[in-house]
Structure formats: structure tokens, C-alpha cells
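Human:
Class, as today's exercise, you are to examine the entry below, and be ready to discuss the fold:
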Amino acid sequence: MTPDVESARARLLEIIREKAIVHGRVTLSSGKEADYYVDLRRITLDGEAAPLVGVVMRDLTRHLSYDSVGGLTLGADPVATSMLHAAAAAGERLDAFVVRKAGKAHGLQQRIEGPSIAGRRVVVVEDTTTTGASPLAAVEAAREDGATVVAVATIADRATGAGERISSEAGVDYLHAYSLEELGLA
């Protein structure tokens, strides 16, 4: 990592700990209860943190060859656009795409919005991963649209087996920027 990436990573972690971790009993998307919630939309839509998300996530995936990022709306959208903007700031090109939860019944009736991903190498992104269901749905949709999915990358992994599920069911690498230990939750 370059010093800029190291400082971006450290600052983003500080902001996540300050603003995104909510303590108290909550029901997760899996239906299970937890003593905390990691609300990363408080980060991915934050004016200071969002650019850091792009830098950190691009560094996380720097060893991969891809030209578009996206995932299931809503959690993936700001992650993908942060990465798009970080690439542009570095003088590089990266497209983003949005996977709808269901196809549109009007207009072009597309499930995936943005520049075409057919025949392209893509990374599916997410803000936080619990069950793996959202990125798996995005992987399936991207493949149906003709893309080659090279990995799934998330900001925070909840250590609930999602990474193993994604690797086994989708057959792609699973990457995360921060673990529960780094977030101070393990």
C-alpha cells in the first residue's frame, strides 16, 4: 500500500467506528438478531468517507483485472460510484453498474443499469456482507447479462460464513476491506 492508501484506510476505519457502528439489539437481513448493526450507508454516502471508500476498495482489488463494478441496489450503488470516482481521480477509467432487485416492467426492461457489462470483466461490490445473498444475486444477474465476474468485494465482513458461501456457490474470490476484529466487534 502507498502512504496515501494507508492513511485513507486508517481514516475510513476511524469514521466507520465513529459513525456506522450502532450498538443495541437489531434484526439482521438474515432474520438473526445481533447486539450491533454496521450501517455503512452512513459512510458510503458521507462526503468525507465516500472518497476514502473508493480509494480503499480500489486498493483491495488492485491485483484483479476488471473494468466495471457494481452490485445489488442499494448497498452496492455508492460503493461502485466511489470506486468510479477514485479511478477517475487517478486518471483511469472504471465503469459502474446497478443490479435491480427485479427487472423493470417498462422502458427497456433491464435488470442491470449503466454501461453494458456484456463481455466485460466485473467485480461485484457491497457495503457489508452477512449472508452473501445480495452479492450472489448480483453475480447471477451479471453472468446472465454476459459479464465475467472476477470477484466479490465488500467493505466489511460480518464473519458469518458469507465469504465461504460466495466462494463455493459463485466460484469467485471473496475480498473484504475490514474484518470484525478491525471494527472492534470481535
